[in-house]
Amino acid sequence: MTFCHFCQHNYSHAATGIPTTKVKYSRVADNEDGYIDLQFKRSPPKVPYKAIALAAFLFLIGSLLIIIGALLLAGYIHVSHPDRTVPVLIIGILVFLPGFYHLRIAYYASKGYRGYSYEDIPDFDD
C-alpha cells in the first residue's frame, strides 16, 4: 500500500477515487527545475472573424450615414423636411465609432503592435 501525502490515507485519492497503485508518476530530472519550455509557449491567437466582420459592417454603414448626413446638412441633397438631417448624421456617428474602434484594434493586433490583442475584441462565438 502506498501512502498519499495529499489525502493522508494509505490506499486512494478521496477526490478521484483512483487507487494510487494505478496512478503513474514520472520523476523529474535532478538537474532541471521542473519546468519545460512548452508550458510557457503561448498558443496562437484566435481571430474573431465574426466580430471583425460586424465591425467592418458598422464602419461602412456609419461612414455612409455620415456622408449622407453631411450632404443633407450642406444642402447638396434636397429634402422637404430639413429637421431630419441632423439625426441621420448623429446615427451615422454612433454607428461609425464602435466599428472604427474595433477595426483599429484588429488591424494593430494583426500587425503585432504591443498592447493590442484579438482578445480585446468581443467575440460572439461564446
UniProtKB/TrEMBL annotation:
Cited InterPro entries: TMEM230, TMEM_230/134
First-listed, main subcellular location of the protein, grouped into a coarse class: cytoplasm
Subcellular location: Cytoplasmic vesicle, Autophagosome; Cytoplasmic vesicle, Secretory vesicle, Synaptic vesicle; Early endosome; Golgi apparatus, trans-Golgi network
Keyword Cytoplasm: no
Pfam hit, one: TMEM_230_134
GO cellular component: autophagosome; early endosome; Golgi apparatus; late endosome; membrane; recycling endosome; synaptic vesicle
Role: Involved in trafficking and recycling of synaptic vesicles.
Record GO biological process: synaptic vesicle transport
Protein name: Transmembrane protein 230
Family the UniProt entry places it in: Belongs to the TMEM134/TMEM230 family.
Stretches that traverse the bilayer: 51-79, 85-103
